[in-house]
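Two folds, back to back.
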Amino acid sequence: MRLAVIIPNLHSPVIDEVIAAVLAQADTALEIWVVGQDCYGKIPISPRVHTIVTPEPLYPGAARNLGAERAEADIFVFLDADCIPQPGWLSALLGAWKSYPNAGAISGAMLPQSDTLIQHCDQIASFHEHLTLHPPVERKSLASFSLLVPRTVWQQSGGFNSCLRHTEGLDFTLRLRAQGWRL
């Protein structure tokens, strides 16, 4: 099984930490695709890290689709450029997928961390259903900050809506659910 982590990036100041955290818990069967722009020059050089620099900023869904089109993997893990995976994140996602191989998508949980109270409250309000304090259960929709999707499901769904500025993960997973996939 080949695995690709696809990260839409628009000048994330922590993209190097995100990539390092992914590489620290992955074997060599993993490829990372970073799609977008990096004005800070923080994307590390590695044989497993592929960068697609876009001439203009892309919405996250468009960047995710571009990475998925280029990746040669059976499983995609879409990860936001400001989400630093905790140790065990990847094995937990893959373990959940092995437990539910007919799922259309599986989401990771979020442990909010931010520099300000306002950012922290925004993370809790925006992702309250996806916080680490909730048990893993089937959901009506998922967010795309940490989302495992088999390639065949992504292809059958038509991918993310590349015109949406926000909520592309909600749109994507609602379409998967309408197609009969479990989340």
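---
second:
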Amino acid sequence: MLDLKAHIRTIPDYPKPGILFYDIGTLLAHGPAWRTSIERLSDIISPLQPNKLIGIESRGFLVAAAVAAHMGIGFAMVRKKGKLPGKTLSRAYALEYGEDVIEMQDGILDAGDKIVLCDDLLATGGTAAAAIALARQAGAEIIHAAFLIELDFLNGRTRLDVPATSLLHYSE
């Protein structure tokens, strides 16, 4: 069994001092590890029978789009404000100091769609919770959240109101 953690590089003090960054770039660069990641996430998500996945800018696009393609279902992007063409739905959410806004194209999700949020990393859970709320705003049913990596010590899972699964867990 392939050890996916062996393909995650940690970078201290990035993007600022005191932060340990978990870099999936090295996982993406290793074909068998990347393929295994997509297959394992697909194995978690497939039994739930969603018809679309949503992924959050930017690394979440890589994960969610690959899983959706592997499963043969649709994918919708959740982006920072002002990055999507056409009419959008917006959701503001709190940051440690201030606020941010994410958007999704209006009409990209249909009322009654069964959606799974699929992202690269669950940290504090703020952006994931906002993406879940945004999909609900579009009329979709969010049934699960799946992550490549979860930083357990940040307790982000507690901010989500859907079941969540993560392939890799880090406790510090």
